[in-house]
Amino acid sequence: QLGWYAVQVNANDIAVMGAAPEFFTAALLFPAGATTPDAVETCFEQIRGACVELGVSWIGGHTEVTPAVTQPVVCGQMIGRVARSRLVTSSGGRRGDDLVLIGWLGIEGTAVLARERRAALPPDLADRAARFLFDPGIGITRTARLACQVIRPHALHDPTEGGLATAVREMATASGLGAQIFDHPLPVAEPTRALCDRFGIDVLGLLSSGSLLVACDPVDTPALLAVLPATRIGRLVPAADGFRLGARPLPQFDRDELARVLEGRC
User: Fold this and answer.
1) pLDDT of residue 54
2) Which parts of the chain fold into alpha helices (H)?
3) What are the residue ranges of helices labelled H in 55-189?
4) Helix (H, G, I), strand (E, B), or coil: what is residue 88?
5) Region 192-212: what's the mean pLDDT?
6) What does the alpha-carbon distance between residue 17 and residue 7 come to, in Å, rounded to a whole number?
7) What does the alpha-carbon distance between residue 152 and residue 246 come to, in Å, rounded to a whole number?
């Protein structure tokens, strides 16, 4: 699903700025001596399908078979549009803002674990978890658009590598603040929880494309909770207060928990 991934993750980066993705370009590199016409056509069809799904025009790029790579590589660029007054940045958080998480944690990590470690999992769990790539899916374009229609978010961020804990740190640090995460259950789907238990990993540090972190005025939070599958998970605090999960420090992940599993470290 390389082509589909490339479109979705590039669209996410535009969407969290409050913009609508409109145009996509891609450079596709395929390994010499190991590439078939069907492989190229499949990647093209994945890109086309994802662009159609998102209402994006694929306007150009470059395709090459080259000995410079040993597996297919797609480098994408998404171009979007937003009114200057509606632009959202990850550095726009304000002291006292609510932190609201839309969607479940670990969606993309769940799908990747199921696809890469299928042999180590019960078939029913592997099947359910692998489908997370598409349902609920790793794209947050429509979610971000709806959030920006309902309220005026101060900051948006899609938790990717390093999971929610890293996303919270990145947003708060960019805004010159700290963060307090409430010590209550976070939204985690049952297959994700089962995989984390099986591999001994922390969902807070697991690749979480498919969820959206919002910093907003507390008066706006009820509107988000009313129209989206959202949870108020914490608030932004003065930088001197640091990063807390309840009464303890918020865990810090130097690398994604997914990497530890794929490297055989857990």
Assistant:
1) 95
2) 2-15, 37-54, 107-116, 123-130, 141-150, 163-174, 190-199, 221-227, 257-262
3) 107-116, 123-130, 141-150, 163-174
4) coil
5) 96
6) 16
7) 28
Q: Cβ(153)–Cβ(216) under 8 Å?
A: yes
**Residues whose CB falls within 8 Å of the CB of residue 96, separated by 6 or more in sequence, listed in order:** 218, 235, 236, 237
Nearest to 203 by CA among 100, 109, 72: 109
Distance CA 261, CA 162 (A): 13
Closest CA to 7 of 24, 20, 30: 24
pLDDT tens, residue by residue, 113-129: 999 999 999 999 999 99
pLDDT tens digit sequence for 10-42: 999 999 999 999 999 999 999 999 899 999 999
Q: How far apart are CA 181 and CA 98, in angstroms?
A: 10
Integer Cα distance of 219 and 235 in angstroms: 13
CB 167 within 8 A of CB 234: no
Closest CA to 72 of 53, 47, 49: 47
Q: In what order do the strands lie in the sheet with 57-66?
A: 57-66, 20-31, 73-81
Q: Are 54 and 22 in contact (CB under 8 A)?
A: no
Lookup result for tokens 């605090």: 237
Residue type, 260: R
Tens of pLDDT, residues 132-188:
999 999 999 999 999 999 999 999 999 999 999 999 999 999 999 999 999 999 999
* pLDDT-derived band at 266, boundaries 50, 70, 90: low
3-state secondary structure of 73: strand
d(CA 235, CA 182): 8
